[in-house]
Amino acid sequence: MEEQGDRRWWMPILVASVALAVLATLGLGLWLVVRTGSDGVPRAPEPSPSPAPPTTGPPTTGPPTTGAATTPARVPMPDLVGLPRSAAEAALDRLGLGYRSELRRSGRPAGTVIGTEPQAGERVPLGTDVTLVVSEGSGPPASPTPDRTSAPTPTATRAPTTGATG
Fold it and tell me: Is the Transmembrane keyword given for this protein (predicted)?
């Protein structure tokens, strides 16, 4: 009679190889499921943020001679009505927008923003000067002239600082 130990020495190797192949297939399937979005299209890897785009040519000092003109970045105008003047100016600074203020009489407390030009929600280019209409309060007019209540009084102007990104 033959010994049974000599005939089946390869069986554990075969079982281990099949088990590894099954695990590798399951791992690959799981990786594909995680990598694919819910719409069934593979997602592209997200780019890492970079501080400045790379340049493709040598630096030049003159204006470009070919290509379309680039449009400046635009930001939505925030709703500043009802805010104190200092808070509205700080918000515009963070967005990279300039501002100027006009004083008008109103029923609102003095120093409160009662209007803006452009209006809230409009998209404006970076560096745009925004007009803040600020309440003078509701005291009696300084002169009996009817124009006094409707004519704006400029009080402060500030240009945006370069490099302000928010």
Answer: yes
